[in-house]
Glucose-6-phosphate isomerase (Flaviflexus ciconiae), 551 residues
Amino acid sequence: MTASPIDPAGTAAWKNLETIARELAPNFREWFAQNPNRAEQFSFQAADLHVDLSKSFLTDEVRAALVDLARQTNVEERRDAMLSGEKINVTEDRAVLHTALRAPRGSTITVDGENVVDQVHEVLDRVYEFATKVRSGEWTGITGRPIETVVNIGIGGSDLGPVMAYEALKPYLQEDLEVRFISNIDPTDAGEELSGLDPETTLFIIASKTFTTLETLTNAKVARAWLLDNLPEGTGDEAVAKHFVAVSTALDKVAEFGIDPNNAFGFWSWVGGRYSVDSAVGTSLAIAIGPENFADFLAGFRAMDEHFANAPAEENVPLLMGMLNIFYTNFMNAGTHAVLPYSQYLHRFAAYLQQLTMESNGKSVRWDGTPVTTTTGEVFWGEPGTNGQHAFYQLIHQGTQLIPADFIAFANPTYPFATDGQDQHELFLGNFFAQTKALAFGKTADEVRAEGTAEAIVPARVFEGNKPTASIMAPYLSPSVLGQLIALYEHITFVQGIVWGIDSFDQWGVELGKQMANDLGPAIAGDEAALADQDPSTRSLIAYYREHRDA
Ligand code: F6P
């Protein structure tokens, strides 16, 4: 029996936070002057991550009130319910157990009477065995040549995690093996990604939790036709068996598609798509970085899970960061949240987080069907620094909206370049340190004047400061640290969802557009009656398309 959501706005902690927020005048210059220990007091260690929240809006009072709100909305109880396999995904009647995907062999988490950890390791062992065969060249294509390119075909959670992690872990890739990704139903995507590939040395992984997703199935068919058209003759079904594997919870549908069930890797309904990169959905990644590094990746998730499960609320990084996001969104009117990695390898991290956070918490009803009582679901966005600095940071520094931002950086570079005696990574990190400093402490009009600035342009050169940030650092961007970062944001997302009383694990909001896209097929193809049934705007857009498409 799932507990009813608690109305956060009706709690004593919420009322207290309203008062605190009304009276809070964030002033980092003063806060640090009054408390020389502030950096130490609000810096935390979560696994290998050093997380400095001293330039956030945490104060002793704010932290205590946020922890109270977490307690009064049962965040810790819900966390424990999730971790123990309770069916907290109410609208789909499912357990939520991405944490079981990284549970150690031999541990027990039970769903419907079965220990799912055993199943997880059974599949992982098969994925590792397969990855090893592909990497060593033991697995060959139909003409006996080893695989040189793996193409992952999937979308959403069946794409964003693998592609983000593949990009992030480039230093760990096997040299003679490339992974490409096809996701978009725009034929351009398949066209571009297939171009230049040799079908004899290409392996396709069709990744789809449901194995019903139009984009993925369409691209899989395109890939199959491309393979069979371009291979030497007479290699039909046998070629598909050597060049296609699948990852899905719907193994019956995989078989219907014509993929050998022996070449399919399963996962389970209790793994949400956007929480699945550490399941068999990560098979392309396991091939790319190898089983040992993939195991390290999982160990990183696990380390963060343990921190989330065990650290006291006052020092629990995902809990504090999730509650701070509540503070910014619900009490400080922030509508967006920037995530700014100072690592080019993390250039797809924000895109990955967009699905994780926004598909999870972009909801306006609670898990019992009643309307939410507060604002939910901020927009997550970002780009790697320093590129973002030359694009949109202006708005974070001097715009009129409050934009909390997470900065992420690593102590060690992969490429130790130096020019004119200057270590390039230090130049890079200089920017990382400078940005949160500038955002926090700003620059006063007097400081601007002291630089000899003409009075007329002093206002334009003032930096208000007092913009909240979190700084996350780790020694290296290793597979484990990447796992820790992902799990950190998974748990932040969870915490926010619980406070808001929403089911962070369904995604009904994507259904209507999917259904309409299917229904529009006949009208687009020229069925006049179907066209006439459309609303005037859709009708005129389709008419434009039909007029302008070359015959
Ligand atoms: O349409 C949204 C969604 O269901 C995501 O939640 C999911 O990650 C994506 O589509 C792909 O779904 P599947 O893995 O079932 O193909």
Summary: DSSP finds 23 helices and 15 strands in the chain. The mean pLDDT is 97.
